[in-house]
Amino acid sequence: MKAPPFIYHRPDTLDGVLALLAEHGDDAKILAGGQSLIPLMALRMGRPAHVVDIGAVPDLAGIDVDDGAVTLGALVRHEQAKRSDVVTRHAPLVAAAMPHVAHRAIRTQGTVVGSIAHGDPAAEMPAVALATGATMTAASTEGTRVIEADEFFRGYLDTALRADEILTGVTFPAWPAGATGSVVEVARRHGDYALVGLATRLDLDGDTVTDAALAFFGAASTAVRVPTAEQVLVGSTLGDDTIAEASRIVAAELDPPGDIHGSTSYRKHLAAVLTRRGIREATQQIGAPA
Ligand code: FAD
């Protein structure tokens, strides 16, 4: 099916984008890589009257590092992030997620920020944003504001972004010294959206966990953390019993929606298995006890 008719705009300044969003509001959609928006329009699940292509706006494709914090601009493609030494070194959880994101042809077009703005609950980047405590910078004709990841994802394809705002970038905070992490998932085929996935971050002081984040994707209407399971890990040295207890809590607390690809109980089972796998994979990377 083809997309319904729309008016195409390609402003070459950020101010031009902001003016169009202010004028058209809910009737406008930003086009970044188009890897989610265009399929949705073709399926008639989205019918924006105005499509605002940001591809000609300068200065949105940068990867910047400031005191260890990494900022990806709105036009940084997944593949660009995957190949970036800065991302590998300073945002290792983003790097760990990249091989799981779609296929290369999609990664060369789709953007990291677009994935976050889209807020697909089965996508890797929203979970990575939650696990790392990323912040999103939103701009409108009224100014800019910074939105914390845990306030950003509100529901299925629903975020805190207003219709008149563009996300200009996402900032991943400096990766703590001694931290480790992993991204694990189960998908029907490599490159497909995950049935369930997990982004894990563990902050360590020696062998002891000082902070933990378990951010699941494909397990709720948004990416979601499970704080009670994280608390079990904090203060521990990640013994078998501790990991088993975290895994049990995850299965008890998550209530993933079932669909033709997997029932609720199957996804709960996957979440429990991935909890064990994700923690072990994270610890193996730095040789901490598991
Ligand atoms: P677009 O499609 O251009 O936009 C998506 C939405 O976000 C639109 O509503 C748009 O208005 C909004 N938006 C985009 N940028 C901004 C911005 N800067 N500010 C405000 N709003 C904005 N993704 C995964 O994470 N994991 C996968 O495994 C995966 N598999 C895929 C498999 C297939 C076959 C396809 C087609 C896509 C897959 N994707 C997957 C999605 C892909 O990664 C998309 O590129 C990504 O989700 C959205 O990025 P985009 O730049 O293409 O955004």
Question: Would you identify the regions where 5 or more consecutive residues have pLDDT less than 50?
Answer: none
Please report which band the strand proportion falls in: under 5%, 5-15%, 15-25%, 25-35%, 35-45% or over 45%: 25-35%
Question: What string gives the helices and strands in order?
Answer: EHEHEEEHHHHHHEEHEEEEEEEHHH
Overall shape: globular
Quick summary:
The protein has 12 helices and 14 strands. The protein has 290 residues and is of the alpha+beta class. It has a 5-stranded antiparallel β-sheet. It has a 4-stranded antiparallel β-sheet with strand order 11-12-13-14. The protein has a 3-stranded parallel β-sheet with strand order 1-3-2, with helices on one face.
Characterization of this structure:
The chain is α+β, with helices and mostly antiparallel strands. It has twelve helices and 14 strands. The chain has helices at residues 14-24, 37-42, 78-82, 85-90, 92-97, 104-107, 112-118, 124-132, 149-152, 227-233, 240-253, 264-286, and strands at residues 7-9, 28-31, 50-53, 63-66, 69-73, 135-140, 143-148, 153-155, 158-159, 166-172, 180-186, 196-205, 208-217, 224-225. The strands form four sheets. The chain has a five-stranded antiparallel beta sheet with strand order 4-5-10-6-7. Strands 11-12-13-14 form a four-stranded antiparallel beta sheet. A three-stranded parallel beta sheet has the order 1-3-2, with helices on one face. Helix 7 (112-118) crosses helix 8 (124-132), helix 10 packs antiparallel against helix 11 and helix 11 runs antiparallel to helix 12 (264-286). The mean pLDDT is 95. Bound molecules: flavin-adenine dinucleotide (FAD). Residues 29-37, 39, 74, 101-102, 106, 110-111, 113-115, 117-118, 120, 123-125, 161, 166-167, 192-193 line the site of flavin-adenine dinucleotide (FAD).
